[in-house]
Amino acid sequence: MISRIKGTNDIIEDSKVWEWLEEKLKNVALNFGFVEVRTPIFEATELFNRSVGNETDIVQKEMYTFEDKGGRSITLRPEGTAPVMRAFIENNLSSKGLPQKLFYCGPMFRYERPQAGRLRQFHQFGVELIGSPLPIADAMTILLAIEMLKTIGLDKFKLKINSTGDEKCRPSYVEALKAYYKPFLNDLCDDCKVRYDRNVLRLLDCKKDAKYAESAPKITNYLCDDCKSHFDKLKKYLDDMEIEYEVDPAIVRGLDYYTRTVFEFKYPNLGAQDAIGGGGRYDGLIKELGGAKVPSIGFAFGIERLILALEEEKKLPEIEGLDIYIISIDEDQRIEALKIANALSKYFKVDVDVMGRNVKGQFSLASKENARYTVVIGEEEIKTGLYTLKNMKTGEQWKVRLSEIIKIVSGSAETEIRDQRKSGDL
Ligand code: HAM
Question: Which parts of 66-155 fold into alpha helices (H)?
Answer without folding.
Answer: 81-90, 135-151
